[in-house]
Amino acid sequence: MTVAERKDISNYLNRPYNIIIKSISDESGDYYVARVLEFNGCVATGETREEAYQAIYEVLEGFIEDMLEDGEAIPEPISDDEYSGNLRVRMPKSLHRDLSQAAKLEGVSLNQYLINKLSK
Fold first, then answer.
1. Residue 78 forms part of a structural domain
2. N or C end of the chain, less CB within 10 A?
3. What domain range includes position 49?
4. Distance (Å, whole) CA 42 – CA 58
5. Which PANTHER family would you find in this protein's record (predicted)?
6. CA 13 to chain centre
7. Does residue 93 register a pLDDT over 80?
8. Edge-to-edge strands of the sheet including 29-36?
């Protein structure tokens, strides 16, 4: 790998990608799983949160190297600017009625009622 290619990969690794780390307890034991939201299948594990965090960057580096070699576009980091806060949901009229009535009983708007229910 040339110096220029190494620099290109470093530039990608320094972008603010979304790293998600979860603790897992299963038949294998207790460990942490890290993933990069923008890269489907970019997953690593570690015995500690720190190990998983370090491991995911090694996996991410491999993903980026492979994508560059294959001429694939590297995903851009997902930023908060991509979310407007608006969501349109279609539902049966009967569900709309039931939710509207429940909101009225609580003395709040349907929007506030739904936000409250979804945030729990």
1. no
2. C
3. 3-69
4. 10
5. ANTITOXIN HICB, UPF0150 PROTEIN SSL0259
6. 17
7. yes
8. 19-26, 29-36, 43-46
Average pLDDT, the chain: 92
Strands (E), the chain: 19-26, 29-36, 43-46
At residue 79, the pLDDT reads 86
**In sequence order, which ranges of 14-109 are alpha helices (DSSP H)?**
49-69, 93-106
Is residue 39 included in any domain, yes or no? yes
Output the pLDDT for position 83: 81
Q: Are residues 64 and 7 in the same domain?
A: yes
Per-residue pLDDT, 2:
66
CA 89 from chain centre, in angstroms, equals: 21
Pick from 20, 70, 26, 84: nearest CA to 49: 20
Are 60 and 93 part of one and the same domain? Answer: no
Query: Do both 60 and 88 map to the same domain?
Result: no
Q: What is the CATH number of the domain that holds 50?
A: 3.30.160
Residue 74 domain-assigned?
A: no
Residue 45 is which amino acid? T
Cα atoms in the 13 Å half-sphere on the side-chain side of 70: 9
